[in-house]
């Protein structure tokens, strides 16, 4: 079974190399100035070039306007856009049209009502990303290392293509993948030694568990 894996919030070639070596299908770059993982379009372009196309480059933005997206798309040339704010279905459709890129729409999940909110985006977003709600007082809509109740996903329509995200790490990814069957997983702070500082040893450890669980799923 194919399981895409995205390592998000990359800022250095060392961390990027570890992600690619581990088998990441996607690598994510954060364009959100309040984040400790924020990169400029120029920095992301250099990292993307360094990866040599071995993983799809995802640009993560939060309610970005066309001017911001124009600069990112022109400079970095991502393979996919992750919209991690409160973008409406109309805005998602507009972004897809304007940039001719696949779009992954992120949702903050706490209960079933949050999952129901994806309905108007079906057929518009190419993929969904389910993250936890940001804790009170957090300056970030994602990258908070917080998980949500994965049981909520058990009854989800099997045709929904989603990336599981939020508080994943080497210690819990095995349990997550035994409980739910996402087409993809996404991790950021779970492979960091401090906010915004990726740890290559933690990236390696994460992939070891993912590979072991993937083999379990295939058996
Ligand atoms: O990581 C950030 O700083 C960030 C900022 C703004 C929007 C999204 C961000 N990260 C996304 O958050 C999730 C989960 O992160 P974590 O594994 O819980 O730390 C991931 O999708 C990142 O793309």
UniProtKB/TrEMBL annotation:
Class in the EC hierarchy, top level: isomerase
Family from the record: Belongs to the TrpF family.
Name of the gene encoding the protein in the UniProt record: trpF
Pathway(s) where this gene product acts: Amino-acid biosynthesis; L-tryptophan biosynthesis; L-tryptophan from chorismate: step 3/5
Domain (N-(5'phosphoribosyl) anthranilate isomerase (PRAI)) ranges: 6-208
Catalysed reactions, semicolon-separated: N-(5-phospho-beta-D-ribosyl)anthranilate = 1-(2-carboxyphenylamino)-1-deoxy-D-ribulose 5-phosphate
Alphabetic keyword roster: Amino-acid biosynthesis, Aromatic amino acid biosynthesis, Isomerase, Tryptophan biosynthesis
Gene Ontology molecular function, alphabetical: phosphoribosylanthranilate isomerase activity
InterPro entries: Aldolase_TIM, PRAI_dom, RibuloseP-bd_barrel, TrpF_fam
Transmembrane segments annotated in the record for this chain: none
Name the UniProt record assigns to this protein: N-(5'-phosphoribosyl)anthranilate isomerase
Taxonomic lineage of the native organism: Bacteria, Pseudomonadati, Pseudomonadota, Alphaproteobacteria, Hyphomicrobiales
Record-linked PANTHER family: N-(5'-PHOSPHORIBOSYL)ANTHRANILATE ISOMERASE
């Amino acid at each position: 079974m194919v399981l895409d894996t995205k390592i998000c919030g990359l800022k250095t070639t060392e961390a990027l190399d570890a992600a690619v070596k581990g088998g990441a299908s996607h690598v994510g770059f954060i364009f959100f100035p309040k984040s400790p993982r924020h990169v400029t379009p120029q920095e992301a372009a250099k990292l993307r070039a360094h990866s040599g196309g071995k993983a799809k480059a995802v640009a993560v933005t939060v309610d970005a306007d066309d001017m911001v997206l124009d600069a990112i798309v022109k400079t970095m040339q991502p393979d996919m856009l992750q919209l991690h704010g409160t973008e409406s279905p109309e805005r998602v459709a507009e972004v897809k049209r304007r940039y001719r890129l696949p779009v992954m729409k992120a949702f903050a999940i706490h209960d079933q009502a949050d999952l129901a909110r994806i309905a108007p985006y079906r057929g518009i977003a190419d993929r969904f990303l389910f993250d936890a709600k940001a804790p009170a007082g957090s300056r970030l809509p994602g990258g908070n290392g917080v998980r949500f109740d994965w049981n909520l996903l058990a009854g989800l329509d099997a045709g929904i293509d989603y990336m599981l995200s939020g508080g994943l790490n080497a210690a819990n990814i095995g349990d997550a993948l035994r409980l739910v069957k996402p087409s993809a997983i996404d991790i950021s702070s779970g492979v960091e030694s401090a906010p915004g500082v990726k740890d290559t040893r933690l990236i390696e450890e994460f992939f070891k568990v993912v590979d072991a669980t993937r083999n379990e799923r295939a058996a």
